[in-house]
Write a structure and sequence with these properties.
Distance between the termini: 28 Å
Structural class: mainly alpha
Largest sheet: none
Number of domains: 1
Amino acid sequence: MEYILLFFTGICATTLGTLAGGGGLISLPMMLLLGIPVHSAIGANKVSNTVSSFSSFFHLYRKKQLSFKEVYWIIPISIVGGISGGYIASSLSEKNMYVIAIGLLIFAFITSYLGKGNFTGEESLRANKISIPGLYGIGIYDGLFGPGQGTLMLYLFSYLNIAYIRAVGYVRLATFSSCIGAATTYIMNGKIIWPITIALLAGSLTGAQIGVRIAEKLKPRLVKPVLRVVTIALIIQILVNQIM
């Protein structure tokens, strides 16, 4: 029964994560509720995110909705950002990490009303003075804390006037890049409970394919309202975790 529940948890979490980020809102609390040790729960998430993120990206790449030549540089920036965030995390208290997370999410929420981007643009993603520090900073956040990484990245691509379906593909590639190192670390440290991880992974792969197909049909004008709802939910979850 536990494995079936984890399978459907993976579907729901990754469908949401693909569309607007914030899949951890569903998967991590559910695993902790089932009594799974926190490091094993995070490790299961990282492993499943690595595989499911790549599957979403590959689906869009195969359909020629995006070009690898345009986005290959995301990979090293996300990896270095994740490593930097992990290093910084060792010198910060948990309380300060929560403050940073809430501050970034509130900032993203406010700028979503100020910015003109609405995911209808056809700009190409270029390495410039906004995209490089933006992606690197979000990579640091992912390594430092994690929840909301995909949501923050979608806000960045909206500001850069990137079409929604391409933004989804770029976010999934960045998530794959930042998670692969973390997943390897958890595996090498023996933190992975494989039956649980495989059940979540199977659901995540299914959710990734559901999510990317919904994204292909989702009207761009609906994306920002969904992002704002997910952002508020993330802020509430972080505040509740801090209080408890």
